[in-house]
Write a structure and sequence with these properties.
- The complex is a heterodimer of chains A (about 110) and B (about 110).
- Chain A has about 110 residues and is mainly β.
- In chain A, the strands form two sheets. In chain A, strands 2, 4, 5, 9, 10 and 11 form a six-stranded mixed sheet that branches. In chain A, strands 1-3-8-7-6 form a five-stranded antiparallel sheet, with no helix packed on it.
- Chain A is built from no helices and eleven strands.
- Chain B contains no helices and eleven strands.
- The model of chain B has no long low-confidence stretch (mean pLDDT about 95).
- Classes of the chains: A mainly beta (about 110), B mainly beta (about 110).
- At the A-B interface, β5 and β10 of A face β4, β5 and β9 of B.
Chain lengths: ~110, ~110
């Protein structure tokens, strides 16, 4: 089955700086890579996703890049703000149609004011 | 707005009890999932279902079973609860067809087995 590794497990950045979280996956058949944000005491929510036919996707201050050859993908947050503090999870999906999502272990991002 | 609702927010059960966690979604989604969330281990898939009465084991199915008799409802069953099943349980659903893959999560059930 799919295995997703995520690094780092914790990350602290100054407000206004950029944050990068990296994930690798094992199954070359995976074709869907979402990122979820989980604020304290709340449920995970999708913030951005990318499919394997695209190398990069942006949505305002967040972007995701995908390198299919190396089987890794990254989340980039620019101009970080205090409300970006949360746990971020990457995931990979390898079942076509029946999309079984395998998650990474999460990154706790802290924005220092 | 998609709603995934779990029957309990907090639950305390005794060792050996049979425990039912219920999840209902209101968006006619094909896929439903049960995850377990533990610090440092992320979200680990217990079981998922892509259709009524269909189920597949995830990464940590031991000690759990599931039931999906209706499309909107997916139940997780702990046959004989043990203390190592103390955890946060998250249900999720996703469309499964039509090119949309976003998974929507319930609010979670924090289960404590004593």
């Amino acid at each position: 089955g799919e295995n997703v590794e995520q690094h780092p497990s914790t990350l602290s950045v100054q407000e206004g700086d950029s944050a990068v979280i990296k994930c690798t996956y094992s199954d070359s058949a995976s074709n869907y890579f979402p990122w979820y944000k989980q604020e304290l005491g709340k449920r995970p929510q999708l913030i951005i996703d990318i499919r394997s036919n695209v190398g990069e996707k942006k949505d305002q201050r967040i972007a995701v890049t995908l390198n299919k050859t190396a089987k890794h993908f990254s989340l980039h947050i620019t101009e970080t703000q205090p409300e970006d503090s949360a746990v971020y999870f990457c995931a990979a999906s390898w079942s076509f149609g029946n999309e079984k999502l395998t998650f990474g272990t999460g990154t706790r991002l802290t924005i220092i004011p | 707005d998609v709603k995934v609702t779990q029957s309990s927010r907090y639950l305390v059960k005794r060792t050996g009890e049979k425990v039912f966690l219920e999840c209902v979604q209101d968006m006619d989604h094909e896929n439903m999932f049960w995850y377990r969330q533990d610090p440092g281990l992320g979200l680990r898939l217990i079981y998922f279902s892509y259709d009524v009465k269909m189920k597949e084991k995830g990464d940590i199915p031991e000690g759990y079973s599931v039931s999906r008799e209706k499309k909107e409802r997916f139940s997780l069953i702990l046959e004989s609860a043990s203390t190592n099943q103390t955890s946060m349980y998250l249900c999720a659903s996703s469309p499964g067809t039509g090119g949309r893959s976003e998974a929507f999560f319930g609010q979670g059930t924090r289960l404590t087995v004593v």
